[in-house]
Amino acid sequence: MTLHEFNILPKVRLIEELTKCCGSSAWVRRMLPFIPADDMVELMEDAGEQWYKCSEEDWKEAFSHHPEIGEIESRSKGLFSEKKKFASTAQWALAEQGSVNTASLQTIEALAIANKLYKEKFGYIFIVCATGKSAEEMLDILQKRLMNTAEEEIRLAADEQIKITLLRLEKLLS
Description:
The chain is an all-alpha fold and 174 residues long. It has a domain at 68-154: Oxo-4-hydroxy-4-carboxy-5-ureidoimidazoline decarboxylase (UraD-like). 62% of the residues lie in helices and 0% in strands. The protein is built from 10 helices and no strands. It has helices at residues 3-7, 11-21, 25-31, 40-52, 56-63, 72-76, 90-96, 105-122, 135-145, 150-172. Helix 2 (11-21) packs across helix 10 and helix 4 (40-52) packs antiparallel against helix 10 (150-172). The longest helix is centred in the C-terminal third of the chain and has 23 residues, at 150-172.
């Protein structure tokens, strides 16, 4: 859709589209006053500014709207197609994590183990902007980030989430 089409969406539909870009209901609410936007640059700047005004709980809500990197259950069920929670963003998630489809079983299993350790340590799923990264690169990033403190990690995860959000806004409005 074009920026103009986005700008004139009814509020209910606008909320749906923004939620596809970022699962934080607080971020979506924060974005509403900035629409209509004059241009994409302004919209992207507002998106970033509003993201960093959200709380850690708001960030964690957004993280919960993503499947885990390399999630075996999702892969075995047709890459997110049966996960109602991820249904509205399934195609984006599939493209973003596309390199996992060609990863070795060993890499997939290592991702599953590291994802479990990450969630146990931090209390939320591992978030990385997967676009352009191989499964092996994501595994390496995940293993390194497991060494972070909770304070370091929440900021890194938030930084990755806004990258994903901005990419999805671009996809939505292209």
